[in-house]
Description:
Helices cover 53% and strands 15% of the residues. The protein is of the alpha+beta class. Strand 1 and strand 2 form a beta hairpin. Helix 2 packs antiparallel against helix 6, helix 7 runs antiparallel to helix 8 (348-380) and helix 9 (393-409) packs parallel to helix 10 (429-445). The chain is rod-shaped. The chain starts with 15 loop residues before the first helix and ends with a strand. Residues 99-119 and 493-505 have low confidence and may be disordered. The structure holds adenosine-5'-diphosphate.
Amino acid sequence: MAADRRVTSPERGGWPWQRSLQQRIVLTYGVIFFGVLAFLMVWVGRIVYAAQLSDAEHNLELQAYLAANTLEDPLSGYNAEFDAFARWESSEDTTESEEDDHDDERGDRRDHAEGEDEGDHPTVLPSTTASPSPAVDRLQQLARVYATDTGARVTILDAQGNPVVDSQFVATTLDNQIDEREVQTALRSEEMHDVRTDPLTGVSTLFVAAPIEQSNTILGFVRLARPLSDITRGIWALLLQLFALGLLALTLATVLGYWIARRIVRPVQKLEEASLAIAGGDFSQQVPVESHDEIGALGGAFNHMAEQVSHMMTQQRLFVANASHELRTPLTNIKLRSEALLSGIDDADLSQRYLREIDSEADRLGHLAATLLDLSRLDAAVDGKNGDPVDLLPMLHNVVAAQRLRIEQNGLNFHVELPPSLPSVRVWPEQIESILVNLLDNALKYTPPGQSVTLSAQAIADNLQIVVADTGNGIPAEDLPHIFERFYRVDKARSRRSAAQSQSSGVGLGLSIVKTLVEQNGGRIDVQSTPNAGTVFMVSFPVNSR
Length: 546
Ligand code: ADP
């Protein structure tokens, strides 16, 4: 059987993640998550860095001002130290000019430093040694105390920017600092800080300076310097924590994403399996519908489709079985009679009768073949495309003219009720004619002589309704729901008998063709019938729609 055929899904190319929806969902999820985490870290890092830096600036500025305040207090006596330093400086300059005609650049101060060394590097201050000028020992100690208190390098400069003391280096080995930005703004008594690479340590450093003023005269400056790494160390720790938390969240999200993706993909895989089974001929396939979302809707639609396909296949098989059965009956009749004739019949009348019956059965076969062909053409026709708006009245009059004689010759009364005008409808008139001929044909077949057949048409609401009614045999209630099915006959024996007399149909295909034609023209057909009282077929088409 076809159900045994194994159908496998076609080869899927590309990278593994391109072949798996699940992997793609998880990967996309992960990449987005990682991107958001990175963005968050940069963003938070920048905000925290800015806040920390501004905090550090304020603190350092405050410390510098406090130190400057102490130094400018006349009672503290530090002004005497600045004076002593100035005197020492000038004596040093005099010695220098005597020794050498060298100019007065601050860089040369290094050559005179205590414990001097070769090259450009300033001398690191030994922990116990006092400054080169004993006169500024108190300043040196103060610088060290502030350095311990603030954690910054403290440099006290004179009014010209010459380092007087430094908490870390021998001051006289340092360059003049008057051109540095923080000193320049302190000179204008403004708050100032600067971030730059300290040439002495080679690291990014925050510099802050405050002027030491006494009665509007600048004695010097207190300059504090703190490496930025002190400030950023905390930020890095914070970012590291954030990153670790992010990674943890990413892991959890990946596991969760994998689970969610699995839930999404599983029904799709089931759909694939079921589709392959259907392709292999097993039409009983149904997939479980576990959710109310789009995937659930897809599953529902799939199940409906599978049911429809299954139903269509059953119908198809039934149709083929019925068709072959219907073909076999006249063929058997022909075969029996031809065999009898071949074996030699003396009775000339009987021979003639057999030949007429063979002829009639051949006609029946021809008619059946033509009907089946019509049906398959109708099945293949693309519906949904209706014709131009058309007035059906002329066609209705033609049908009346063509059928009247035949109906009346069968001893029936033919009533026609057509209004002077009808609204136009979008249909193919030849097909509507075919519908009416079929219905009138049935009325003729199933109505005894003396009774009547009526054809009428009228506009009802937005529809054009055409009615074919008769006062004939009627259809039993239990048969009514089935009369539009292919090969369905109410009284099979009766139909076949009448078929032997009349070549028109009699195999139960007429009404199924009528229904297909009505639907392909955008209309609908209804039937009402009472046994032994009559049958009414109502065909209606929407007026000028589509
Ligand atoms: P058939 O070729 O047998 O007429 P149809 O498809 O046209 O096939 O009709 C199906 C069955 O419906 C018929 O066998 C008949 O019993 C019943 N039928 C159709 N039209 C009428 C009618 N006007 N009056 C009574 N029975 C009818």
